[in-house]
Specification:
Radius of gyration: 16 Å
Largest sheet: 2 strands, antiparallel
Helix content: 55-70%
Number of helices: 6
Distance between the termini: 47 Å
Number of strands: 2
Order of helices and strands: HHHEEHHH
CATH architecture of the largest domain: Orthogonal Bundle
Shape: globular
Number of domains: 2
CATH superfamily of the largest domain: Winged helix-like DNA-binding domain superfamily/Winged helix DNA-binding domain
Structural class: mainly alpha
Strand order of the largest sheet: 1-2
């Protein structure tokens, strides 16, 4: 991601750095600046370029792999697997669950608290 394919992290933002990276990669893919099949920098390289810990970039990549947007193979590196829209339509429940799990962790909820919140919300939405 060089030139117009630039990811920038705003350290003054309320949004976690890994989310900023994830959101910007999604934007680059959605706008066609990173087409399907494009290779992304390694976790270490992007972390170095952005001045972030490798774990921060790894978390962004993992989130995008979980939703099917990225795929990683040792021999080929990390590549764009599908558009965010295509990934969201193939597994909408998994994508929603992943987003919820990320938010629950961000606010410090443990698994039991998060599951209880889902159960309460699901029951409250029943007709």
């Amino acid at each position: 991601m060089t030139g117009s394919h630039r990811v920038v992290v705003d350290t003054g933002s309320d949004r976690a750095p890994w989310r900023q990276v994830r959101d910007q990669i999604v934007h680059l893919i959605a706008t066609g600046e990173l087409p399907v099949g494009s290779t992304l920098p390694s976790i270490r390289q992007l972390a170095r370029d952005l001045g972030l810990a490798p774990g921060t970039v790894a978390r962004a990549y993992r989130a995008l792999e979980t939703t099917g947007v990225l795929e990683t193979a040792r021999s080929k590196g990390t590549r764009v697997a599908s558009s965010p829209e295509a990934a969201a339509t193939t597994e909408p429940l998994a994508a929603a669950a992943h987003e919820f799990a990320e938010r629950a962790r961000d606010i410090g909820a443990d698994l039991n608290t998060a599951l209880a919140a889902v159960e309460d919300a699901y029951r409250a939405s029943e007709p």
